[in-house]
């Protein structure tokens, strides 16, 4: 029996709903528990599970209607989800003239006789006119709704022969129909816990495991804290408040955050300092000395000479409300530019690597120049090359205004003598507790193990232990939290909730936390605002009051219905037998979870030993599935072979995968094939939100590969595979294009290429064997640069098919096929540019799809996220007549357009085409097609406006040409 998800899947609506959930930021259900990388949207997990459980009947249209009802994505469900009112202005704009007369007395004012019920009817009328995207603005997410309507359940039960009154009952009844019991869902790479949590929430028995103990802890918390319902949520809130208030009392007693005026600090700004090797002056380091754009606050460097030493240092003068000229000067006065020290005294530049003393050793390997810190080091030693100083404090003054109301205002100040004494007091308090707190696990004692991400703090700062990533004030604060949690927690749930909040505080309060000076925030970012451990020249520290939002987290409350289990486990080892495995595996070093998560494990490890005696507290780096080599392929194959062995014959799997490297997709094909699994369907869902931090080569889509056990004993030959892949790629793209025309999903061109990869996998894994391919050899083979396996060639070919098949809108497909690869690259490049696509990765993938090794000659700029093609005018006469693109019809047409722009005479452009194109009369139809296509860019790409108008004029002149 085929499942719904193997036949169809509403990818457009799911993309929109996933995007809405992702854009909710910290109001997402599980993000409040703590940092994890790449949690999949809960709505996507819910839809996947239901899609696996629902049978595909002989009425696909009705199947789709029922599926959308279950997810509350139908018209009735969206109306039930609507919680925000549509404004009078919006309603006026959406109504026809006749409808306005019926409802409104005038614009912005309803008729006096309109009742409450009438208003509801009007809201419903206008709501029905909105697109799906527009409706979502007024709606809660499906997971925030308690239940479907009675009429919806009636329709669902009638169609599927169930008798459910809620989602949990429905899921369990489907499980009994399919497997004879409540469905068991497992995730062997559970990460942040999205899959086990959502499975248990909708009534499945859920199993979650991960090699990483931090991931397992987050999953346990998702199931037992967020999933514990309102009673547990309230209990946790009380426990968090109790701990926070106790820490607050201690901080006040120590007197380390208040000044003599009674003001309390909320942010401390620190910077690294060093001695300029050219002049000997001590220089504070920062890329800019702007502290706040809204308050117009800057730090000014005031030179202080030490005549006896022929050197000097810089005092920091903090000024607020400065002029625009002073603000601009502060931006330019940064002492670190392009990884070089820019000395404000001697104006010489010195590479930071030289200051650190980095060098190449005799064996040509890199040698770090900085002193490596010892465990007891909490601040730099006097002889260290890189020092550290507090240069600004933001204070909060509380006062009573003239109306008797309590208010606050902020002040930026340079630290005075008393502030520096308080800093010394913080260090003294920490040293008194340091050894004991490390022994008890209140602060980290773990060494930093070298790696791709973890080498950076070692190399750039000499930090060797995880606690070196925190200054004394940060360690004292977090250590006090940890000590208080252990003392006050009455049960494991309270303990774990508060412990995870210590991790949140660490994320927001480390030496790697950036200060943001922009006009809206004047606040700090978290350590993991990207997927790295970036050392900084200036950073900020949060006071207790600024940490309040990190520690006091109002978690969402959900009632988890299904039984669940969470363990630390290697997915290559035996797991529980489940009916449906849904996994989001590591992506060939896309994120080094095993390294980055050690930042948090350093704070959790000794607590985990007490709370979960059966769990280990090692990040298991040696077992982590990493790389793009044979180790990655063989390890993943072992994992999925084990999962396949731990599911029934009628069980299914879903692998969620996001990557745009053909070799990685080829590896995935080998992995699944060797694991005894076959791809039965694939769907591409837009799951990623736009982010400047993700600038570069990334995709917006996640591909869902639907898998069953391999039952075929067929053998195929490579020459049979290619035509089958071509047919499957075209079928996949037709489905996506059909949905795009109908509902405008947010698919980029890169996502169509992902779909081509998936289509190739669907063909490849149909067979037990493919002649001439030794699967075990391919898995274990160490590939050299330039090597291409037969699988890579098949997948590369799938992308070429996709590129050729995706003809730009308004371009004749027959004529398109007659163009050269270079021409198709340029014209298709304009098409993706017209969609607002400027990422270099999109152009790289496009070039690879058309088989081009070089395309840079077409680009006007190749800056990150600003890639775009030259216009006709920008090309001028460059490359004209060269082999390839330079001698093509498209290039000649571009030159003729440039001539029309220059002379404002379409006839001169026409005559140029006549003289330059030998077979002009036979090529005329093709020339007109190219010119008309370029003319459509007038309203699509702003900088094409002038050239596009010229293209349309020239197309008309050529069209009217005669002998």
UniProtKB/TrEMBL annotation:
Residues 8-69 form the DUF1156 domain. It comes from the Bacteria. This is DUF1156 domain-containing protein.
């Amino acid at each position: 029996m085929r499942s719904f998800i193997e036949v169809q899947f509403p990818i457009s609506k799911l993309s929109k709903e996933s995007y809405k959930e992702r854009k909710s930021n910290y109001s997402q259900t599980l993000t409040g528990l703590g940092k994890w990388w790449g949690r999949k949207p809960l709505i996507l997990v819910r839809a996947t599970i239901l899609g696996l459980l629902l049978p595909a009947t002989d009425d696909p249209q009705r199947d789709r209607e029922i599926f959308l009802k279950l997810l509350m994505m139908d018209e009735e469900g969206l109306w039930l989800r609507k919680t925000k009112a549509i404004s009078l202005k919006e309603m006026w704009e959406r109504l026809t003239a006749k409808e306005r007369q019926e409802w409104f007395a005038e614009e912005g004012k309803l008729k006096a006789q309109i009742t409450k019920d009438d208003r509801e009817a009007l809201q419903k009328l206008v709501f029905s006119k909105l697109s799906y995207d527009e409706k979502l603005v007024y709606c809660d997410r499906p997971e925030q709704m308690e239940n479907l309507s009675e009429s919806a359940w009636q329709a669902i039960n009638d169609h599927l022969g169930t008798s459910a009154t809620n989602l949990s009952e429905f899921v369990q009844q489907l499980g009994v129909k399919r497997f004879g019991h409540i469905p068991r869902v497992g995730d062997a790479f559970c990460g942040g816990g999205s899959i086990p949590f959502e499975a248990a929430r909708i009534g499945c028995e859920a199993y979650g495991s991960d090699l990483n103990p931090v991931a397992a802890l987050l999953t346990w918390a998702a199931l037992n804290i967020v999933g514990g319902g309102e009673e547990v949520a309230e209990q946790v809130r009380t426990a968090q408040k109790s701990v926070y208030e106790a820490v607050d009392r201690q901080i006040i007693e120590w007197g380390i955050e208040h000044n003599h005026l009674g003001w309390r600090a909320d942010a401390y700004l620190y910077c690294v300092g060093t001695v300029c090797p050219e002049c000997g002056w001590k220089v504070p380091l920062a890329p800019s000395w702007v502290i706040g754009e809204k308050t117009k606050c800057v730090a000014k460097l005031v030179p202080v000479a030490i005549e006896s030493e022929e050197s000097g240092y810089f005092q920091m003068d903090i000024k607020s409300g400065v002029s625009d000229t002073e603000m601009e000067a502060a931006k330019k006065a940064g002492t670190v530019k392009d990884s070089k020290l820019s000395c404000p005294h001697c104006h010489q530049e010195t590479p930071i690597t030289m200051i650190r003393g980095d060098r190449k050793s005799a064996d040509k390997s890199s040698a770090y120049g900085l002193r490596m810190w010892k465990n007891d080091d909490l601040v730099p030693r006097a002889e260290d090359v890189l020092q550290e100083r507090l240069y600004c404090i933001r204070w909060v003054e509380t006062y009573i205004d003239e109306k008797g109301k309590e208010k606050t205002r902020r002040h930026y100040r340079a630290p005075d003598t008393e502030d520096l004494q308080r800093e010394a007091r913080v260090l003294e308090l920490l040293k008194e507790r340091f050894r004991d707190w490390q022994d008890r696990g209140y602060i980290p004692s773990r060494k930093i193990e070298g790696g791709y991400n973890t080498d950076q703090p070692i190399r750039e700062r000499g930090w060797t232990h995880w606690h070196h990533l925190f200054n004394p004030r940060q360690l004292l604060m977090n250590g006090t939290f940890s000590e208080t949690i252990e003392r006050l927690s009455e049960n494991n749930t309270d303990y774990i909730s508060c412990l995870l909040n210590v991790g949140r505080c660490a994320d927001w309060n480390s030496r790697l936390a950036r200060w943001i000076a922009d006009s809206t925030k004047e606040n700090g970012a978290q350590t993991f605002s990207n997927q790295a451990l970036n050392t900084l020249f200036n950073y900020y520290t949060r006071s207790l009051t600024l940490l309040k939002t990190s520690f006091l987290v109002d978690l969402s409350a959900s009632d988890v219905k299904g039984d669940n289990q969470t363990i630390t486990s290697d997915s290559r080892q035996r797991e529980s037998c489940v009916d449906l495995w849904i996994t989001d595996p590591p992506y060939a070093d896309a994120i080094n979870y095993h390294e980055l998560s050690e930042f948090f494990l350093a704070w959790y490890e000794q607590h985990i030993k007490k709370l979960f005696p059966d769990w280990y507290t090692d990040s298991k780096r040696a077992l982590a599935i990493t790389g793009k080599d044979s180790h990655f392929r063989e390890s993943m194959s072992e994992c999925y072979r084990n999962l396949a062995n731990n599911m029934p014959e009628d069980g299914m799997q879903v692998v969620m995968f996001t990557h745009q490297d053909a070799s990685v997709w080829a590896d995935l094909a080998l992995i699944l094939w060797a694991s005894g699994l076959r791809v039965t369907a694939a769907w591409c869902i837009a799951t990623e939100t736009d982010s400047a931090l993700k600038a570069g080569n990334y995709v917006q889509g996640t591909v869902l590969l639907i898998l069953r056990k391999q039952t075929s004993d067929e053998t195929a030959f490579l020459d049979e595979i290619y035509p089958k892949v071509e047919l499957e790629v075209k079928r996949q793209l037709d489905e996506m294009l059909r949905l795009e025309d109908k509902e405008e999903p947010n698919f980029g061109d890169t996502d169509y290429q992902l779909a081509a990869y998936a289509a190739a996998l669907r063909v490849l894994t149909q067979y037990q064997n493919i002649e001439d391919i030794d699967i075990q050899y391919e898995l274990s083979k160490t590939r050299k640069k330039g090597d291409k396996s037969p699988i890579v060639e098949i997948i590369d070919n799938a992308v070429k098919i996709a590129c050729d098949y995706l003809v730009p809108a308004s371009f004749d497909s027959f004529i398109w096929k007659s163009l050269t690869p270079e021409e198709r690259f340029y014209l298709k490049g304009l098409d993706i540019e017209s969609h607002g696509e400027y990422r270099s990765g999109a152009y790289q993938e496009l070039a690879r799809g058309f088989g081009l090794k070089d395309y840079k000659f077409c680009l006007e700029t190749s800056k990150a996220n600003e890639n775009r093609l030259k216009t006709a005018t920008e090309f001028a006469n460059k490359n004209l007549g060269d082999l390839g693109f330079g001698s093509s019809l498209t290039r000649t047409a571009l030159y003729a357009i440039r001539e029309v722009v220059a002379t404002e005479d379409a006839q001169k452009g026409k005559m140029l085409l006549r003289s330059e194109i030998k077979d002009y009369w036979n090529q005329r139809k093709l020339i007109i097609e190219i010119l008309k296509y370029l003319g459509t860019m007038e309203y699509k790409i702003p900088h094409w406006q002038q050239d596009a108008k010229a293209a349309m004029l020239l197309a008309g002149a050529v069209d009217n040409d005669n002998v």
